[in-house]
Amino acid sequence: MLYSVDEMTRSGKRTQPGFTLAELIVASTLISIVMASVYTAFNSTLRVRRLGEANLHTYQDARIALTVLSRELNCIVGGSEHLFEGEDDQFEFFAVTPPMNVEEGKGPRLMWVQYRYSRPQKALFREEAVVDEPLPLRRRDEDTVDRSRIKLGRKRKFEFATDVLDFEVWYCWVPPPPKRKPGEPPVLVDPIILEENRQGWGLPQGLKVALTLEDPNASSGRTTFSSSITFRGPTTSYKAERLGLAEERSS
If residue 96 lies in a helix (H) or strand (E), which one and from where to where? Predict the structure, then answer.
């Protein structure tokens, strides 16, 4: 028996297999939901990974900077204590340390080293130069040494740490303990903390630095790393008069 096309359509039979409009709408909606879920999960994973990498770089930069800085400070050459000087965001000294400039060769050299913070550039810089001649000694009749007497090679500057929000330095001097009678327990002496160390004052007993870097994982957007260095070499004995503290105490 033969049927016409209209008769086949009315009887519910199709001439070719296919999907209805409603089925296409449902399928498209389901695919959109699945793709949106996949995109959200991928974007969240990528964002967490970027934050983790940024935090890792922050800790690595701080660890490397403070490690190198502490190592060089503990290599200050004896006899150059009177040349050590610094402020609240920079300091300079003479140490036996390998130069960062590879053109100067390998191995430790007598170097002039300066660490200096630049707030506009948000960076901590390290500047160095090879000492070409023996360091001048300080005469008894002078408080400072004429810088022209120090013969340095070519100065080189390196960007030591980036994304630095702050860099602070404190100089720690320990006064001698008061005299005590036999049998008396030792007295705890509080250190004198200064924000500068002028040339001629000498080498303090310790130094503390605080390095603040950008940290996207922190609620404040920053993290501060600090390190305290106790000098191993011969330090300068504490004298309030030399540091200009006697006048402040008397007043």
Answer: strand 90-97
